[in-house]
Amino acid sequence: MANRFVLNTISYHGSGAIKEIPGELQRRGYKKIFVCSDPDLVKFGVTAKVTDELDAAGIAWSLYSEIKPNPTIQNVKDGVEAFKAAEADAIVTIGGGSSMDTAKAIGIIINNPEFADVRSLEGVAPTKKPCVPILAVPTTAGTAAEVTINYVITDVERKRKFVCVDPHDMPVVAIVDPDMMSSMPKGLTASTGMDALTHAIEGYITKGAWEMTDMFHLKAIELISKSLRGAVANTKEGREGMALAQYIAGMGFSNVGLGIAHSMAHTLGAVYDTPHGVACAMMLPIVMEYNAECTGEKYREIARAMGVEGVDAMSQDEYRKAAVDAVAKLSVDVGIPTTLPALKEEDLPFLAESAYADACRPGNPKDTNVEDLKALFLRLKA
Question: Residue 1: how many CB atoms within 10 A of its CB?
Fold first, then answer.
């Protein structure tokens, strides 16, 4: 069986990369840009770092910022109407996963209007046309949405998040500028960084993993282990390391899938509005313990990548525990909580059923069931 690999057409990496944006837009002949960014980034002047570049180049643009964390179906529908009103021909999205996921859904629906209900995009939707061209500028060190074929939308009415997987939504250009991440608060840097680690570890052990994606994921794990604490402290080296690490992780997992840490995190976000990175970080050590028996020697390499010494002299049980412990320690070191007080036992059946139905669940290395998922969720109880 052939392994498919989908990436951006072009990506730029490093300090000052945003200065490449006007040239990319002009060379492609775009006349009007739909800027998709969240309200906090607009408020604190982060979005303006990019729109100032557009202004200086004389490129027309309009702004859409009606986007909440864990973006909703309504955010997407409103964005589709805003795009039509703007008469734009390309999208520049600035932000983390929320801005980029919204932009992807808008871009897909504009060119595939038969999916205007949004819900029908769940899973692997049979879209016919690539989305409106997207140039993506990440401002968080974790989601890698600028280099993935995935996006996640919240169905408020049904209290669930749904994953959409579509090669037609891949941004044509990614601009990974660590300076755009420097204004993020510590908590957001920590949570999105742990999201990146969850991407890398789940991508490494997923059923679809293969040699090329293993290469990306192990390097991402190594970089995150070295860089995340520094990024949270807002060091230049930490920010640059995480900017690269999260992109590399995205190159891998987007092409092979994830697992139940993500399916469970999506559910916590939908029901309790838990920030996605926090939910991932809380679930990751728990899920790693659960999956350990189905991972062969991979936890030894995870432990090695995270700087654990002496792994070659350890037994299988020892290196598996060392890998889980290293992940848990990093999470605690950057201030992620280990429990979720909002979780209610009466919610467990719905949480587990939703996580089981999530598109990330089938990639998990260990086949699971609703009862096991209930027990895993229960471990978050304070």
Answer: 4
Q: List residues bridging with 86 in a β-sheet.
A: none
One-letter amino acid at 374 equals: K
* In 112-254, alpha helices (H): 186-205, 211-232, 236-253
Parts of the chain with a pLDDT under 50: none
Same domain, 23 and 116: yes
Q: Of the residues 181, 212, 235, which one is the last residue of a structural domain?
A: 181
**Cβ atoms 177, 137 nearer than 8 A:** yes
**Of 76, 80, 260, nearest in space to 154 by CA:** 76
State both tokens at 186.
Answer: 């510590």
The pLDDT, as a whole number, for residue 382 is 64
The helix (run of H) or strand (run of E) holding residue 175 is strand 173-176
Q: How many other C-beta atoms are found inside a 10 Å radius of the C-beta of residue 46?
A: 21
Crossing angle of helices 298-305 and 186-205, in 10° steps, is: 150
Closest by alpha carbon to 164, among 106, 204, 210, 208?
106
Cα within 13 Å of Cα(19), Cβ side: 4
pLDDT averaged over every residue in the chain:
96
Residue 381's pLDDT is 87
- Structural domain for 258, as ranges: 186-378
- Same structural domain for residues 236 and 161? no
Give how far Cα 14 sits from Cα of 86, 113, 213, 236, 364, Å: 31, 36, 23, 11, 33
pLDDT at residue number 106? 98
| 128 and 197 assigned to the same domain | no
Q: Write out pLDDT tens, residues 203-229.
A: 999 999 999 999 999 999 999 999 999
Place of tokens 């838990």: 274
Q: Say what the pLDDT of residue 277 is.
A: 92
- 325 vs 319: CA distance, rounded Å: 10
As a whole number of Å, the end-to-end CA separation of the chain is: 45
Q: In whole angstroms, what separates CA 115 from the centre of its chain?
A: 23
Distance CA 324, CA 338 (A): 14
The CA-based angle 95-220-138, given to 5 degrees, is 10
Structure-derived torsion over alpha carbons of residues 198, 15, 234, 338, reported in degrees to the nearest 10:
-10
Based on the structure, what is the number of domains in the chain? 2
- For residue 378, give both structure tokens: 């229960």
